[in-house]
From TrEMBL:
MF term (GO), any: glycosyltransferase activity
InterPro entries referenced in this protein's UniProt entry, alphabetically: ArchSynthase1/Queuine_TRR, TGT, TGT-like_sf, tRNA_ribo_trans-like
Gene3D superfamilies: Queuine tRNA-ribosyltransferase-like
Enzyme active site: D95, D274
Organism: Flavihumibacter fluminis
Keyword annotations from UniProtKB, A to Z: Glycosyltransferase, Queuosine biosynthesis, Transferase, tRNA processing
EC number of this enzyme: 2.4.2.29
Record-given protein name: Queuine tRNA-ribosyltransferase
Length: 379
């Protein structure tokens, strides 16, 4: 068993972008990286074989809240953890469930002890505390686990944002304490990332970054962005956080985002991203490509027999044509969900791989500035 390690391999001279290597007990991750979201132990409409062979995902996400409710800890522990349960031998990161509890506005109550909430499945009541969330993530067994935090909504007034941040910090101390008291379960090291909060207030973000940095964790996350604030505000706070969080540790911006969001945040010094956008939008007929964004439902694609995308070096995305994909969507064929999801994940992983290559080549910033207008093009 080895604690997660991070090595910087290169930096872009014209921006803060960097390329690195993360090493976990389940494998190596090259950054910058995008992590497909497998909320309940499954990336929607995509098999584990496809994640490996077609997408080549280096790491995926699970979610504490959802896995705790279903299939439940008894099943996960009997299986030997999430890796064995879902048949995935590469790294996994689990979100703590803080964002999901936040999303249950009206069905949850926050106290110093933790968050009391009602299950979205059957209305049953549950209590998440920093201690119980660490225990649950021990049972799940992910390589990277997240601290239990509160994600304040946007907009939040200053008093609420500060109160929320202070609570998140106190909960963080309890997460570290609990983790130190309990051993890893399945023969591999679990690595805790704290989460920066503070809403859209610069002084609170600074205070939270400094508090998180003082913990000396193996990696750090930035939460509470991409929750409805303008893009420029997200970039402003991400940049500010990157100035304070340790440069020798990976930085994870949670829940972001569009392809152009990812490139802009890479240029600010972010290393890790996740978002449901490629799969969720794909299931709704939106395809991201190296030439721009396609609504494959449009009639203009009815007789277009060109590949979904021949610019990303993916045999999968070259195999299916736009006309056939539109037909699948119109016929409400289940295969449409899989093809769109796999293609979009292919594109996202291609994009961060290209970003890494351009960082190492020394021309990332100019490439990024040329690429973003193309990515935003509506075809």
């Amino acid at each position: 068993m080895a604690v997660l390690s991070f090595e910087l391999c290169g930096k872009d001279a014209a921006s803060k972008a960097r390329a690195g290597t993360l090493r976990t007990d389940h494998g190596t991750i090259e950054t910058p990286i995008f992590m497909p979201v497998g909320t309940v132990g499954s990336v929607k409409a995509v098999s584990q074989q496809q994640l490996k062979e077609d997408v080549n995902a280096q790491i995926i996400l699970g979610n504490t809240y959802h896995l705790y409710l279903r299939p439940g800890l008894e099943v996960l522990e009997a299986a030997g953890g999430l890796h064995k349960f879902m048949g995935w031998d590469r790294p996994i990161l689990t979100d703590s469930g803080g964002y999901q509890v936040f999303s249950l506005a009206g069905k949850r109550k926050l106290t110093e002890e933790g968050a009391l909430f009602q299950s979205h499945i059957d209305g049953s009541r549950h209590l998440f505390t920093p201690e119980s969330v660490m225990d649950i993530q021990r049972v799940i067994g992910a390589d990277i686990i997240m601290a239990f935090d509160e994600c304040p909504p946007y907009p939040s007034d200053y008093a609420y944002a500060k109160k929320s941040m202070d609570l998140t910090h106190r909960w963080l101390d309890r997460c570290f304490k609990r983790l130190a008291e309990t051993p890893d379960k399945y023969g591999h090291t679990q690595n805790l990332f704290p989460i920066v909060q503070g809403s859209t207030y610069t002084d609170l973000r600074r205070a939270s970054c400094e508090y998180v940095a003082s913990k000396g964790a193996v990696g750090n996350a930035i939460g509470g962005l991409s929750v409805g604030e303008p893009e420029e505000m997200m970039y402003e706070h991400a940049a500010h956080c990157c100035e304070i969080l340790p440069a020798d540790k990976p930085r994870y911006l949670m829940g972001v985002g569009t392809p152009w969001n990812i490139l802009e945040n890479i240029s600010l010094g972010i290393d890790m991203f996740d978002c449901v956008m490629p799969t969720r939008n794909g299931r709704n007929a939106m395809l991201f490509t190296s030439k721009g964004v396609i609504n494959i439902d449009n009639k203009k694609w009815e007789k277009d027999f060109s590949p979904l995308d021949d610019g990303i070096g993916s045999p999968f995305s070259e195999y299916y044509t736009k006309a056939y994909m539109r037909h699948l969507v119109k016929a409400k064929e289940i295969l449409a969900l899989t093809v769109a999801s796999v293609h979009n994940l292919n594109f996202y992983l291609w994009l961060v791989k290209q970003a890494r290559a351009h960082i190492l080549a020394g021309d990332f910033n100019s490439w990024k500035n040329e690429m973003i207008p193309v990515l935003k093009t509506r075809l």
